[in-house]
Amino acid sequence: MANANIQITLHTADMLGGMPSYEPGGVVQGTVHVTPQEDIKCNHLWVRLWWHTEGRGTRAEKVIEQMDIAQGLLSAHRPISRSFSFDVPREPWSYAGYYINIVWEVKVTIDIPLASDVNQSLPLVLAPRR
Fold first, then answer.
1. Buried b vs exposed e over 13-23: b needs ≥16 C-beta within 10 Å?
2. What's the whole-model pTM score?
3. How many Å apart are CA 128 and CA 36, to the nearest integer?
4. Residue 64 phi/psi, 5° resolution?
5. 9, exposed or middle or buried, with CB in 10 Å at 0-12, 13-18, 19+?
6. Is residue 61 within 8 Å of residue 51, measured between CB atoms?
7. Rounded to whole angstroms, how far apart are CA atoms 8 and 42?
8. Distance from C-alpha of 23 to C-alpha of 81, rounded to nearest angstrom
């Protein structure tokens, strides 16, 4: 299995319950730092803003925006840093309930051919200010 250190840093976020929080219709901005611990052949290095449900029932998910920040060989110990900016839709809002949760995340995926992908995500809250 491929090994890489992935760090996601969000900029200009308010905090709500210890998590970065954004208003519907706002903008999520940040930086991704990826340092492969070995040479990795990758189809794509994706940064995505997405939401998914957790809990009972059929899982729902939607990628809102994505960026392909690298392709090809990721060389060992050679860091890659890229900034990103995603427009946040007005809905669905984050939700934590008894039967279902709606979870928003910025997710980084190293898409590796014929092997397990390497993933790292950072959850965030999408809700209007009180």
1. beeeeeebbbe
2. 0.92
3. 37
4. -85, -50
5. middle
6. yes
7. 19
8. 26
Question: Are 32 and 74 spatial neighbours (Cβ–Cβ below 8 Å)?
Answer: no
User: Does the structure show a pLDDT above 80 at 45?
Assistant: yes
Instruction: State both tokens at 85.
Output: 């900016």
* Rounded Cα–Cα distance for residues 109 and 118 (Å): 6
Provide the 10 A C-beta neighbour count for residue 30. 21
Between 17 and 33, the higher pLDDT residue? 33
Location of structure tokens 């092997």: 115
Report the C-alpha dihedral over residues 55, 110, 46, 70, rounded to 10 degrees: 180
Identify which of 14, 12, 5, 42 has the alpha carbon closest to the alpha carbon of residue 127.
14
At 69-122, the pLDDT tens digits run 999 999 999 999 999 999 999 999 999 999 999 999 999 999 999 999 999 999
